[in-house]
Amino acid sequence: MEAAVRTLLVWCPDWPVVAAEIVAGVPGAEPVAVMFGNRVLACSEAARREGVRRGLRRREAQGRCPQLVVVEHDPGRDARAFEPVVVAIEGVVAGVEVIRPGACAVAARGPARYFGGEEAAAERIVEQVALECAVECQIGLADGVFAAGIAARAGRIVEAGGSREFLSGVPIEALEEPELTDLLKRLGVKTLGDFAALPAGDVLTRFGFSGALAHRLASGGDHRPLAVRRPPADLTVEETYDEPLARVDVAAFAGRALAERLHDRLAAHGLACTRLGVEAVTADGQELFRVWRHDGLLGAAAIAERVRWQLDGWLTGARRGRTAPPTAGLVRLRLVPDGVLAHVGLQPGLWGETGAERDRAHRAFSRVQGLLGPEAVVTPVLSGGRSADDRVRLVPWGDEREPERPVAVQAEPIPGIETVPVLERAVAPPLRLDAPRASHLRLVGGLRAEPSNGVETSGADGFAMVEVRAGRPRRAGRKPAALPPWPGRLPRPSPAVVLEHPLPAVVADAEGRAVGVSARLELTGTPATLTVGRREPVAVTGWAGPWPVDERWWAAGESRRRARFQMALADGRALLLTLAGGHWMVEAVYD
Question: One Pfam family this chain carries (predicted)?
Fold first, then answer.
């Protein structure tokens, strides 16, 4: 593993509360809670003494502390109030990177050499922030931004090379990945040290790329270095204005146009921004510069938002007890993509990647999200799963369209198993699906066979009995997929419509007896009719299955055991059904 950069991180505790005190005059010494989504985002020390904790609902927090002062969360307010703190730190060290309002980082090598040691540099920064801004802060020093952030909460300096040992006793919740954390705790992994002890290859196979990145952090590494490479000079965008920009709204409008130009230029080179430098020059020659760091990829809206925050901070100059705006209006703005990553291989959207139609659609959807919330507009993303209802993840518009469970394309039904057709479809019930897709269904005993090329069949494509024997692994003609296949997933074709609420059904044989599946996965009868709800029975012209699924058998409250079937009906429909606990359900409809 590549050694992480020695990092000094400055952390201001309870920053949303401190920002509300600086900007809005909220009494920080009193019980104060900053709310976001009707839950406590941050609270003051006085509120914690009354039992208020982060994540509590508003009503419960006020029940524990009736005199609680409630303030709504405002990211712009936090950014504006943090600007003087960054200015104070820049008076001591250079190259400050803002991680988020309330936290910033800098490479520790330069300050340590200048001030005669890491501890001396940390004391100098704390003293400077206290004198200039009257704000308390804590310093963490370790290898990498993640370890330095954990160290800052304890005010510790971790020796070089000791980040892994330092993190070993930290609770697994420090990863701030709720789903991954919950799963790891149920598997017995309680600390970062337990997680780091797992083999990296096994973690990647089981938890995907997000789990692998979290494993790297738990091992004392970093998912990317603090100082990424500088992009070519032609990626920088700037604009000069004849009339100085003295008002925040005018400057923000100009900054948004510049942000869209930067995003389009980066997209043309297949790049995305991870660190953004905002530079401004005033009418009398004063130069202002700030670097914003982001854990993900900055889109056009995210770039424009940070430019607006920064311009607001410069022009209002929010400080405790005094203001320090620029000496004159801004006459030049310059955006520098200080850190970029390759951003290629994305599927174009419904409206393409460029053009007025895409911009209009984006503005319309963003407006709907602003009125109704981010979950009001979502787009589907395919991910790994065994059933039709868990292979689609709905992502809010504007977020990165990453699958929740990445999975590679599985070329064969079962790796290392060769399937050979031995009987024609004439001896089996016919299965009618769309002709281009039906050849994928050659099934027996829950195993999917290769298409029966060369086998003569009568009528439409159906399925054939197969003989399964062990075969030599096929030599790959290309590099193997980086991701493993998802075991137990449904074979193609995929259903066109997945029902939000499955419909109850009854499958009966020719004598009208209900059809079931034994413990050995054998049907108790041949499906002849299907009855959905209270409708009339419809004849079954073809079927395939069962495919058994026994999920989460180790968790009594979450286990699910069922068998899946594909059935074609006499009226032309093709359905996906499941049998669980003796009850049939219609889950999806094929096109």
Answer: IMS
Measured in residues, the chain has a length of 591
Distance of CA 18 to the CA centre of its chain: 29
Among 20-34, 246-260, 367-381, the minimum mean pLDDT is found in 367-381
Task: Give 302's DSSP letter.
Answer: H
DSSP assignment of 54-114 equals TT-BHHHHHHH-TTPEEEE--HHHHHHHHHHHHHHHHTT-S--EEEETTEEEEESHHHHHH
Q: How far apart (Å, rounded) are the C-alpha atoms in residues 569 and 546? A: 17
Cβ count within 10 A of residue 548: 15
Q: Per-residue DSSP letters for 335-386?
A: EEEEEEEE---PPP-TT-SSSHHHHHHHHHHHHHHHHH-GGGSEEEEE---S
Beta bridge partners of 380: 394
Residue linked to tokens 């149920």: 186
Which pair of tokens denotes residue 264? 């389009």
User: Of 114, 161, 103, nearest to 293 (Cα)?
Assistant: 103
Token representation of residue 320: 């405790």
* d(C-alpha 398, C-alpha 396), whole Å: 6
575-589 burial, b if ≥16 CB within 10 A, otherwise e? Answer: bbbbbeeeebbbbbe
Per the listing, tokens 């069922």 go with 562
Q: Is the pLDDT of residue 334 over 50?
A: yes
- DSSP 8-class letter at 230: P
Q: Please, are residues 69 and 50 in contact by the beta-carbon 8 Å criterion?
A: no
Dist CA 146 CA 156 (whole Å): 13
Q: How many CB atoms lie within 10 A of CB 7?
A: 27
Helices (H), 380-448: 435-438
Which tens digit of pLDDT belongs to each residue from 91-129? Answer: 888 878 888 899 998 888 888 888 899 999 999 999 999
**What tokens were used for 405?**
């469970």
Whether the pTM exceeds 0.70: the reply is: no
Strands (E), 121-200: 138-143
Residue 480 phi, psi (nearest 5): -65, 155
- pLDDT band for position 208 (50/70/90)? confident
Q: Give residue 32's identity as a one-letter amino acid code.
A: V
Which of 313, 302, 306, 315 has its CA nearest to residue 81?
A: 313
Range 488-511 burial, b when 16+ CB lie within 10 A, else e: ebbbebbbeebbeebeebebbbee
Contacts 24+ apart (CB under 8 A), 521-529: 521/445, 521/446, 521/546, 521/548, 521/563, 526/429, 527/565, 527/567
Which amino acid is located at 311 in the chain?
Answer: L
For the chain, the distance separating the N- and C-terminal CA atoms, rounded to the nearest angstrom, is 49
Grade residue 40 by pLDDT with cuts at 50, 70 and 90: very high
| Residue 26 phi, psi dihedral angles, 5° rounding | -70, 135
Backbone phi and psi for residue 100, each to the nearest 5 degrees, phi listed first: -165, 160
Number of neighbouring beta carbons within 10 Å of residue 340: 22
The residue behind tokens 């003569």 is 456
